[in-house]
Design goal:
Blueprint (H helix, E strand, L loop, with lengths): L7 H18 L14 H33 L13 H10 L25 E3 L5 E3 L3 E4 L4 E4 H5 L20 H8 L1 H31 L17 H11 L3 H12 L9 H25 L3 E9 L5 E12 L4 E12 L7
Antiparallel strand pairs: 1-2, 3-4, 5-6, 6-7
Helix pairs in contact: 6-7, 6-9, 7-8
Length: 340
């Protein structure tokens, strides 16, 4: 079956034949036509214009070739981070620290020690894993470098991590923890101290509501909504005066903070912990007292479960006085009320 239209190959062959015929016929009518000579200065001007254009094209090609060669150079290699210009620093910052994740270990030194990719990660005091993003390893030099210290260094280097590189694989953990991770540890410490003061205020609110025998929760557990209970109501009140609670509420409302320690679970946990500490203190006082007695009484709760109340009466001794104290220690479930 014949094609209705010529194929691409046939079109190219036909175009080639037409071009060859055109070249053969070119100049065939020159013997019948008299052409006036073109002035030399016009030819020179045209020639100069063509040369300038060719020169510009050559310069553009050279620049493109130079840029291509620069791309072929490994700019992420720490060996090339000496006397960087502005454009190179900008390029490095945009790319960020680059690591060869295929390198898990380096070659052994004369002491039988070597680089390990485990150095990229540090375990913080709270057992949280922290990535040393700034740390890079040069396979060619078998040394560690601080990316930011090396790239932005001005003047004489203050250590091996921003200079010739660090390759003491016997003390590497000590050096990395003391020199660079100190900044990250300070940030972690600052955040840790922040959460301490937040929890301190939450504990105070829990103690206040428990002492006054007030209900903690309402029909919902969201800030600034109707019926959210006494606990969140006190938090909203403190937000107007206390800068720590104000920052905590800002994080919750603006940043969508999920771990905020304002939910019912943390409230129950804090009440349980406070109750345990109070019981320890009461037992300590009872043991120190010379005389004490135990009072037991049974009463059913709302679910008709019989409960035994444990109350201890004891003498509280001080330097200049003696007082009688009664302390409630808790309930015990009673399965049989026959007294046998």
């Amino acid at each position: 079956m014949k094609l209705k239209q010529p194929s691409g190959s046939q079109k190219r062959k036909r175009r080639k034949i037409d071009e060859e015929k055109r070249k053969v016929d070119e100049g065939a009518l020159d013997k019948f036509i008299y052409r006036q000579p073109v002035e030399e200065h016009v030819e020179e001007h045209v020639k100069e214009h063509v040369e300038e254009k060719e020169h510009e094209e050559v310069e553009v090609e050279e620049v493109e070739n130079q840029e291509h060669v620069k791309e072929l150079v490994d700019i992420c290699d720490p060996r090339r981070w000496e006397k960087l210009n502005y454009d190179e620093i900008k390029l490095l910052v945009e790319k960020g620290p680059k690591r060869d994740t295929s390198i898990m270990y380096g070659p052994y030194d004369k002491f039988g020690r070597r680089f390990s990719a485990a150095l990229y990660t540090r375990t913080l005091p709270n057992l949280e894993k922290c990535d040393r993003e700034w740390l890079v390893y040069s396979k060619e030099q078998d040394k560690l470098f601080c990316f930011y210290c090396k790239v932005f260094r001005k003047g004489i280097s203050k250590g091996k991590l921003d200079g010739e590189g660090y390759a003491d694989w016997h003390h590497e953990y000590v050096v990395l923890n003391e020199i660079i991770d100190k900044v990250q540890y300070e940030q972690f410490k600052k955040e840790r101290d922040y959460w301490k003061v937040v929890l301190l205020r939450i504990i105070v609110v829990v103690k206040f509501l428990a002492i006054h025998n007030l209900a903690f929760r309402g029909s919902n557990e969201k800030l600034y909504q109707k019926g959210n209970g006494n606990f969140l109501g006190v938090i909203e009140m403190l937000e107007e005066f206390d800068p720590v609670i104000k920052e905590q509420v800002r994080r919750i409302t603006n940043d969508g903070l999920h771990v905020h320690y304002l939910g019912h679970t943390i409230q129950n946990d804090l009440m349980l912990l406070i109750a345990q500490e109070i019981k320890k203190e009461l037992i300590k006082r009872i043991k120190e007292a010379k005389y004490y007695s135990i009072i037991l009484d049974c009463t059913p709760d709302s679910s008709h479960q019989e409960q035994m109340t444990i109350i201890v009466r004891y003498l509280k001794l001080s330097y200049n006085s003696v007082t009688v104290e009664e302390s409630f220690l808790g309930f015990l479930n009673v399965d049989d009320t026959t007294g046998k």
